[in-house]
TrEMBL record:
Signal peptide (UniProt feature, chain positions): none
Lineage: Bacteria, Pseudomonadati, Pseudomonadota, Alphaproteobacteria, Rhodobacterales
Record's keyword terms, sorted: Isomerase, Pyruvate
Stretches assigned to the Xylose isomerase-like TIM barrel domain: 43-242
KW Isomerase (keyword) present: yes
A Pfam short name: AP_endonuc_2
Active site: E139, E237
Name of the featured protein: Hydroxypyruvate isomerase
Entry's Gene Ontology molecular function annotations: isomerase activity
Length: 257
């Protein structure tokens, strides 16, 4: 197994400054995931020396209506410029803008017309990615626990959109924590998604902590990913159930590091 391992700095060492967390992850050999760049001092993030795997690629906007799409494109352009400054490999999107606690700013039902609009908006995102030389990802979420009301949330839906667009500027951020809650059948989901995966994110269920704390057998999933030919980035977007270093060690061990 030869995955590139990353970890979300927002969820670890939460009593420490974000730039300290980034530097510590880099020291331990991990790439770094971020959420909203606007919450941080960019100069300090640059000075951390970290390699950034992924961050949110927008601050506002929606996929499935004209006003929301225009907001999303403007916000994504701003985020892309920041991403280029930090050297972020992937800029992450969701089915709609998220507010406090991960709830949607505007809850929606994905009607057939909204599916068409979402696909067209993602083509515009790809045009922006091609213009600026950046890659966006679309992340699946879960509805029962964390993100009720988000359209295009299930992995089958994000996969359908990314596959329908089918352009290299848009990949799938396949979050297996969310998929386990919403759908299960994770190995076959990985197999179906394989041509479009940009990054895989992991946490265990329940609790959203590191591998080995819940019901998902990540060592088996890691072996299956290797057998199907995936050797890309795997990011732990999880809280530590105890010590942060121990959580990262468990993650590394699950994925053969």
């Amino acid at each position: 197994m030869a995955f590139t391992l990353a970890a979300c700095a927002e969820m670890l060492w939460r009593d420490r400054p974000i730039e300290w967390r980034c530097a510590r992850l880099d020291e331990m050999g991990f790439e770094v995931g971020l959420w909203n760049w606007v919450d941080h001092d960019l100069a300090k993030l640059e000075a951390s020396g970290a390699t950034f795997s992924i961050m949110n690629g927008y601050l506002e906007g929606r996929l499935a209506d004209d006003e929301g799409a225009d907001m999303l494109l403007a916000s994504a352009r701003e985020a892309a410029e920041v991403g280029k400054r930090l050297g972020v490999a992937r800029l992450n999107l969701h089915g709609t803008g998220l507010g406090d606690g991960g709830r949607p700013k505007l809850a929606e039902v994905a009607t057939p017309l909204k599916w068409v609009k979402a696909r067209d908006t993602l083509h515009r995102i790809c045009d922006l990615g091609e213009e600026l030389g950046v890659t966006f990802t679309l992340e699946n979420l879960n509805l029962p626990v964390d993100h009720a009301g988000v359209p295009f949330a299930r992995a089958e839906e994000t996969l359908a959109l990314v596959a329908a667009v089918d352009r290299p500027q848009l990949r799938l951020n396949l979050d297996l924590y969310h998929a386990q809650i919403g759908e299960g059948n994770l190995i076959e989901l990985c197999r179906a998604s394989l041509p479009w995966i940009g990054e895989i994110q992991v946490a265990d269920v329940p609790g959203r902590c590191e591998p080995g704390t819940g019901e998902i057998n990540y060592s088996v999933i890691a072996k299956a990913l290797t057998e199907m030919g995936y050797d890309g980035p795997v990011g732990m977007e999880a809280f530590a159930s105890g010590k942060d270093v121990a959580a990262l060690t468990a993650f590394r061990e699950a994925f053969g590091g």
